[in-house]
Hints:
Radius of gyration: 30 Å
CATH topology of the largest domain: Tetracycline Repressor, domain 2
Order of helices and strands: HHHHHHHHHHHEHEEHHEHEEHHHHHHHH
Number of strands: 6
Amino acid sequence: MTNTLYLPELREMLAENNAAELREFCTALHPARTAEFMEGLTAEEAWAVLLHAETPLRVEIFGFFDDDKQVEIVEKIGREEIASLVAELPHDDRVDLLAEADDAVVDELMPLIPEEERRDIQRLSRYPDETAGAVMTSDFARLSEDWNVSQAIDEIRRQSEDLETIYYLYVVDEEDHLRGLISFRQLISAMGKPDKKIGDLMERDLVTVNAMDDQEEVADMVARFDLLAIPVVDDEHRLVGIITHDDVIDVVREEAVEDAYRIAAVAPLEAGYLETHLLTLTWKRGIWLTILFFGALLTATTLDNYRTNLDEIKWLVLFIPLVVSTGGNTGNQSATLIITALKAGNIRLRDWWRVVWREMLMGILLGGVLGMVGFGVGWLLITPFSFYAATAIPATILLVVIFGTLCGALMPLLFHRMGLDPAMMSNAFVAGVIDVAGILIYMRVVISMGLTHS
């Protein structure tokens, strides 16, 4: 049964105020599926359905709504009802939600949220976007190294209902300085020694991130050490939060989408394609298109400088698209490979000389193969045919492909060295640079062979 077909039944339940069936609807499926079946409902209808679920389940279903639906519910439903929901949401999720909602609505909601939760929201909201602090949650288990196993288990039992995860249990001192970590599995395994001190069981050599670290670096760290969660500390090594694996997945997806936009020479969108205003989309695409347009003008100017040579030998024009597209495509491949390798952590800046060597060899191999094909094309198109003249084509292609591989590989590395996102070195930008270089190489080869006058 599709989501669309289920909507009339849901609306019928609401119209008849069929509480029993609405409760069953909320509990029968996984919360993600329940939220999916509610996609077509208005904010008011969706909230009316959620009221038939117990608070923990209501919060879970609400969390699977898309961002726009969540914001719509927050802005349209009674403030007191929403305040109680926001207070129960995961700490990082509610901060993100309130950041998207209308400021006037948030101002009305905040006084209705319990003081402790309100302070937590305000504290987490202070961290800049795309930092570890902005994606962390303050919802984690705290233990003392002076406690024994029995005390720790009692404390976890007390805290568990309010915690997002108990995979890792963090050991802190009285001032919240991070002292160590013990996994829940380790704690359960030590139940046979109830008097054993947590300080004797915990791991002290921990992988941590600073609250101001870039979220992409955090994701790389979690992937490298295969962690379920990573602790976030401040400059004084106080534990301020944790970032769980599900939040890391969100970060990875977000960064991948941004990289895809940049590689295609589009400024990243803040909302979905259909939700982005046409003028906003035009601006985000137009910025790069304007830059690339002037790059194309440079290509045209370069060609114009060789107008006499092109008029003297007509067949030269035939191979210009072949030369520039071959160089551009080669550069795009190299740029994509290097950007991907940098993002995956497969190469570092110190590996630049190895990259240059590999791309040089790759350029020679690819250029040699494509050059032979180019010679065959020259055999067919150059009239009258001259073996000596036809060698200008493979020679040019070889040099252009070598230049393309090196340029495409080194430009992302240069951006990374400058502290910029290498994905900003888009394929279109790399192709524009190689287009100009390709024409210059082509004409210099032709002139150096004496086929035309300089």
